[in-house]
Design brief:
This is Bacillithiol system redox-active protein YtxJ. The protein has about 130 residues and is of the alpha/beta class. Helices cover about 35% and strands about 25% of the residues.
Length: about 130
């Protein structure tokens, strides 16, 4: 990775994905996440892999998760540049304006909270 990529949020490095993330790469994955929300809360993090701010917010949020003992939440990750149609579907289905980065909290199939940029934190979920 080049120095400029590190500063300006170039391509996401391989192997960085944290073990608590489940990825959304299809409408079927999104349906599974929504189904999961009937058992426990689901947090969907919509991330722009080309945005430095999104990368910084993601890292801070991941640290928050790692330092918590929260186990009643399923964490889902969406690369919104690669899977833009799914990101658009989320915005449309939950009637939430698209932002990046964005955290959407789903419970019983409905969005109960959402946050973007520096407002994203674990406190939005619990």
């Amino acid at each position: 990775m080049s120095f400029l990529d590190k500063i300006f949020g170039g391509k996401q490095e391989q192997g960085e994905t944290k073990s608590f993330w489940k990825t959304i790469k299809s409408e079927e994955d999104l349906e599974k996440a929504i189904k999961q929300s009937y058992e426990n809360r689901v947090a969907v993090f919509k991330h722009s892999t080309s945005c430095f701010i999104s990368k910084t917010v993601l890292k801070n949020f991941e640290k928050e998760i790692e330092n918590s003992d929260e186990q009643n939440v399923s964490f889902y990750f969406l690369d919104l540049l690669t899977f833009r149609p799914i990101s658009n579907k989320i915005a449309e289905d939950f009637a939430i304006r698209h932002e990046s980065p964005q955290l959407i909290v789903i419970e019983n199939g409905k969005a109960i909270n959402n946050a973007s940029h520096q407002d994203i934190s674990l406190s939005q979920i619990v």
